[in-house]
Amino acid sequence: MSNLDWYIAFSFFKLAVITEGIYFRFSQGKTVGHGFEQRPLWSNRLSHRGNATLKEN
Predict the structure, then answer these.
(1) How many secondary structure helices (H) and strands (E) does the chain include?
(2) Do 16 and 53 contact (CB within 8 A), yes or no?
(3) Whole-prediction pTM value?
């Protein structure tokens, strides 16, 4: 489990990519619902957290 932090950071980056895909669909009107317009906050927070996880070690 010596690489656990790397896998945790990778999961944050993967989630950031997923949220980008959701926002892309939302911007084209293919995903409807409340809160999708806040995608930049999700992606930024997830990617910053991924970076922070890598820098902690």
Answers:
(1) 2, 0
(2) no
(3) 0.78
